[in-house]
Design a protein that fits this description.
With about 500 residues, this protein is of the alpha+beta class. The chain is built from nine helices and 16 strands. The strands form two sheets. It has a nine-stranded antiparallel β-sheet with strand order 3-2-4-5-14-7-12-1-15. The protein has a seven-stranded mixed β-sheet with strand order 9-10-6-13-8-11-16. α5 runs antiparallel to α6 and α5 crosses α9.
Length: about 500
């Protein structure tokens, strides 16, 4: 079996996986480009978590849905521009199947042909808190993360057209299991950040949004978007997508009903990222809270309950800095221990070497260890990534291909199929806040961002313009490093 690890013969009826948990974790923690794992979750009970099954398990429990327009605008459909309803999955299914409005509850205010609905960021530990046994249906231990289950995972249920605006996650890397229907992922490498016009408005800790609507880019307003390198893939049921750290992504449901499960994997680099996010929160809250509230700029994402005070933000910053140095101290101790052991081994080995070879260390090992930034990662264990039918690269889109084109991965993964289809428990730090609701039927909560108004001056700089510069990821990274240096002194 291509790419498979050598192991004992499988017992009768046992699910055979192409990679051991140890090998899979090594791939996840070292691979710096998106890839799709196949044939890794065939025995997971979670593969039966289609919307109908989940409706029965939830048994009438209401959850929050975000509704957006199916019409494609030049402006991203941020969460601040959507409507929200609380409904059961049974009502959602009735609405999406065209059943009488009396069965679709609050969805009856929204015409299915005009709107999509998305139950996104649903923390499994919360919505199934009375059924903890269901957590074990999700087995991230197969990917080398023992003890990680549904309790550390998030559920996404959407109708056709449901989407997440293009953004990057400040923390961790991401493993995404597709359960029902297909989703199309548009991914962009971290090096494309400046071409994607990053913004922190709407503000949400851990998410940096793009001003560009990837599905319908305004190239007149955002000409540098032409320089991006899109990696597009259509994810099918049973496949798991790895989204590496800081990769931008725009995600859209392309089937009538889709169900996905994801888990954000913590990384050592998150400690510095938390310092950056704490600085960002202080700046955004201080500057935006000072604005005239009558300006009509809804700058706070619905996932953030309120603009936190300067005192609270300062406490958060100090905690983030403290955690960073605690991690650094632990890392230094580990490296010192490892260095001591390594010195003993090299001293022993040097007796068998020529004098000029004593103390030599391959340059490649030093570079790899520094680049990946994982204190526990051993460069000498890094082997060639076993791409093949069980681990498929998400390759860059050819320039001549339509922006809606995709690479589809066959479900059985016997071949690589490239076809143009025409086409923070939560993010590691705390619970996702309760979304605000809009009771107005057929009326988007906010039709347009303040900085996209056609009546806005073409020359005057807005507060958002200033913020976009101040909290640009590159600037925040520099400020974080300077602040840490000052604290160290």
């Amino acid at each position: 079996m291509a790419g498979a690890e050598s192991r004992r013969p499988p017992a009768p009826g046992e699910d055979v996986k192409p990679f051991t948990p140890e090998k899979t974790r090594e791939i996840v923690m070292s691979l710096q480009q998106p890839a799709v794992f196949c044939n890794m979750v065939g025995d997971w009970p979670a593969l039966h978590w289609n919307a109908k099954y989940l409706s029965a398990v939830l048994d009438g429990k209401t959850i929050q849905f975000r509704l957006g327009l199916k019409t494609v605008d030049l402006v991203p459909q941020f969460e601040t521009r959507c409507n929200y309803v609380k409904a059961t999955l049974e009502e959602f299914l009735a609405w999406s199947c065209g059943q009488p409005s009396c069965l679709s509850g609050p969805f009856s205010c929204y015409e299915y042909s005009k709107y999509w609905a998305y139950a996104d960021y649903k923390y499994i530990a919360r919505i199934f808190e009375d059924k903890p046994e269901i957590f074990q249906d999700i087995r991230w231990s197969d990917f080398g993360f023992p003890g990680r289950s549904g309790k550390e995972s998030t559920l996404w249920i959407g109708s056709e057209g449901a989407n997440t605006p293009c953004h990057l996650d400040s923390y961790g890397c991401n493993l995404v299991l597709q359960v029902q229907g297909r989703k199309r992922w548009h991914l962009f490498p971290p090096g494309d950040t400046s071409f994607l016009y990053p913004t922190r408005i709407p503000y949400e800790e851990s998410s940096i949004f793009s001003k560009v609507n990837v599905a319908n880019p305004d190239l007149k307003r955002f000409p540098e978007f032409r320089n991006t390198t899109a990696h597009v893939v259509t994810l099918s049921p049973g496949q798991v997508l790895l989204v590496p750290r800081h990769w931008w992504h725009y995600v859209e449901s392309i089937d009538p009903i889709t169900v996905s499960i994801n888990s954000w994997i913590e990384l050592d680099a998150d400690h510095e990222a938390r310092v950056e996010e704490a600085i960002t929160r202080m700046l955004v809250c201080a500057i935006k809270s000072a604005e005239n509230p009558g300006a009509g700029d809804v700058w706070l994402n619905p996932t953030e309950v309120e603009a936190t005070s300067h005192e609270i933000n300062l406490q958060y910053l100090n905690k983030a800095v403290s955690a960073y140095f605690k991690c650094q101290k632990a890392s230094v101790s580990e490296q010192a221990c490892s260095s001591s052991t390594g010195t003993e081994q090299r001293t022993s080995a040097s007796r068998k070497r020529k004098k000029r070879e004593v103390g030599c260390e391959p340059e490649g090992c030093r570079l790899l260890t520094h680049e990946f930034g994982f204190s526990s990662f051993k460069a000498e264990k890094l082997q060639k990534i076993p791409f093949g039918p069980h681990l498929i690269q998400v390759l860059p889109q050819p320039q001549e291909t339509s922006s809606m084109g995709a690479v589809a991965v066959e479900s059985d993964s016997r071949d690589l199929l490239h076809e143009n289809e025409g086409g923070h428990f939560g993010k590691l730090h705390c619970t996702r806040k309760q979304l605000v609701m809009s009771n107005d039927c057929e009326t988007p909560a906010h039709q347009m961002d303040s900085d996209s108004s056609p009546n806005a001056s073409q020359t005057a700089l807005s507060t958002n313009d200033l913020l976009d510069c101040l909290v640009n990821p590159h600037v925040i990274n520099l400020v974080a490093r300077l602040l840490l240096e000052r604290t160290r002194v």
